[in-house]
Amino acid sequence: MTDRARVWASRKGLTVLFCCVFSSLAIGQASEGLDIRSAATPIRLDGVLDEAAWENAGVATDFYQNFPFDTSYAELDTEVRVTFDETALYIGAVIYQSQEDYIVTSLRRDFELGPSDEFAVNIDPFQDKINGFHFAVTPLNVRREGLIDNGNSISTDWDNKWYAEVSNHPEYWVVEMAIPFKTLRYKRSEGANQWRINFSRISVKQNERSTWNPVPRQFGINNLAFTLPMRWVTPPPSPGLNVSLIPYAIAGVERDEEFRLPAERNFNAGGDAKIAITPSLNLDLTFNPDFSQVEVDRQLTNLSRFELFFPERRQFFLENEDLFGKFGFPSSRPFFSRRIGLAQGTLRRTTTGGDEIEVQRSFNVPILAGARLSGKLDNNWRVGLLNMQTGAVSDADLAPANYSVGVLQRKVFDRSFVGAIFTNKVNYRPDGAGGYEVDPDAFNRVAGLEYNLFSKDNKWEAEAFYHRSFTSDNHVDAQAAALFVGHYLRNWRIFFPTHYIGRNHEAEMGFVPRRGFLSTSPGITHLIFPKKKWWAERVIAFGLSARTEFIFNQPDYQLTDRELSAGAFVEFPGQSELSLDYTENYTFLFFPFDPTNTGGVELPEGTDYTYPTLNLSYSSDVRKDFYYGVEGSYGRYFNGDFSRLRFQLNYRWQPLGILALDATYTDIQLPSPYNDAGIWLVGPRAELSFSRSVFFSVFLQYNTQADNVNINTRLQWRFKPVSDIFLVYTDNYFSDQFLANPRGKNRAIVLKATYWLNL
């Protein structure tokens, strides 16, 4: 190991000289891929590449810069080797970086992409360059795993077993990864087998991002469009029986102080099972699931007229989540998994004094059981089937419901696919005998077709879809359709979405916050990269942008919303950026609306308003232990004045974690008799890692618009891979006079244990 490191270091001078002379030619002649051979000897995972198996492993060297430039070799060298045995894929890497330059945000698993040094591998077993697996590690052996969809989106909420060890040296660090074949999804044949792979690096202090196969800097370093072939000299092994059981047990106490309700003590158990029908097709089963360890949603100041979107975090729904949840546009999804098991409504409760009262709140709906089949049938076909049954909530007069989804996708051309989706929600009603029966008039179904295009070089992206909802009323104008075209070049980013949703389009299992409109939203961004050395060392890029949105409401397609925006920004080293934007909005109210969303007097229906806003923001250099962002806005808002100040403060207590504060003050001044509003949204948080297996987080959210203060703390001990004990405490108060005279709403404490058992 030491000899090889010295040899590699001695090549650095020649490599740099070669890059200066031949970089353009070399990048044009990217490597043809990598051959992977079975390990001749066992590999011990210890962060030292001293086994004989590494000497015969496939080698990837000569990384290319992606950022700040993409026309030369990386300044920091990396050497990667890949091999395998009957149980796992092994990746060993020598990563050249001075130990004193390490920047690692914390020891917590699933660390954020960007502010920490990292080495990552992206694997595409089916060579569709759209879906794959992502594994990353820092110099302190902090790990992150995720699923890649749409070519570059990484979901780090996915959790599974894999292993890594790191050794640190003064001028380089070494990582050994072992990714079990049972963790991956792939198709195996007895003849030639080929996957696709790429490796990436982020070196924060050096302000460098690099990849083995070149990735143009207008794209992220983990984009699967730029993976290279990984050819198996001998076929990968079949993972054999691949069944995982994940039972849980939970105990908790909840008390509602607002309505003087007695404490509720809960004891429960349930679990999940993951069964590999084939190496590429997985069946997930759940019985009486519980999601109490999920982090609370980040609260937002809502000044819109419509519902806000919050992402799914529950583990059961995450594998192949894009297959189910990314049909349509973000403003028109036929399926949104948060509709299952969560509800907003009126609960009947009995106080400690014996009074019967009604309580408006969000609450969990019991999920009795569910099944989810998803994955690849072969290199061209993906399938997804989901069915979940919820129970009744008697004190909310909420009957059971059944949720079903079917999805089929077919790959076409190099990186594109067509898909079909069908959702079916069946509602129940009381049968008069103490039970429930299917209500034949209370169903909701959506059927849809979609085409997604991703060009081979990733410069073109397009999407077109048509969805139709069905209810017992059989409404006309119950469809949704859209077309999106985007073109992404080094200096230009151009996009043109057009979207239509009918007045009677109902997707009870989906997310459709607004109906009955036609919108178009073209936009363009121009990037300018300095060429002179003096400028290039101080400024990464300049940018100019223009964005628009026009919304026409049914039935007469009157213009009801318009947004015209122009801006400029400058990007500096260390992910620092300064931006200035000017926006002019026009709104025609087709229903009464309180612009402050605080329950005040509403502006009348049929009135229209034009209001401009100027926005200035700056984010500082993340390479420093203390980094921050500040944003200020000023302008008109409907028939009044608007100003907003937001600041974000972050202190990296390396390597223990992050101390942060995110605070926003929004001031709205409207003429009488309408409400004025001074809205505070303050969110201090601490995320601390006492080791790579013990994590503690505390998060406070002070929201005067929602009249709520939420305190959420979570202690997590990962005692074995993907097996945890959680202690979660949540407390809610009224924000009014919180500091002087706090009034409690409700609080809960939960202890939960989960265990991942492989059969």
Automatic annotation (TrEMBL):
<protein>
    <recommendedName>
        <fullName>Hydrolase</fullName>
    </recommendedName>
</protein>
<dbReference type="GO" id="GO:0004553">
    <property type="term" value="F:hydrolase activity, hydrolyzing O-glycosyl compounds"/>
</dbReference>
<feature type="domain" description="Carbohydrate-binding">
    <location>
        <begin position="45"/>
        <end position="189"/>
    </location>
</feature>
<feature type="signal peptide">
    <location>
        <begin position="1"/>
        <end position="28"/>
    </location>
</feature>
<dbReference type="Pfam" id="PF06452">
    <property type="entry name" value="CBM9_1"/>
</dbReference>
<keyword id="KW-0732">Signal</keyword>
<dbReference type="Pfam" id="PF19313">
    <property type="entry name" value="DUF5916"/>
</dbReference>
<dbReference type="GO" id="GO:0030246">
    <property type="term" value="F:carbohydrate binding"/>
</dbReference>
<feature type="domain" description="DUF5916">
    <location>
        <begin position="241"/>
        <end position="653"/>
    </location>
</feature>
<dbReference type="InterPro" id="IPR010502">
    <property type="entry name" value="Carb-bd_dom_fam9"/>
</dbReference>
<dbReference type="InterPro" id="IPR045670">
    <property type="entry name" value="DUF5916"/>
</dbReference>
<dbReference type="GO" id="GO:0016052">
    <property type="term" value="P:carbohydrate catabolic process"/>
</dbReference>
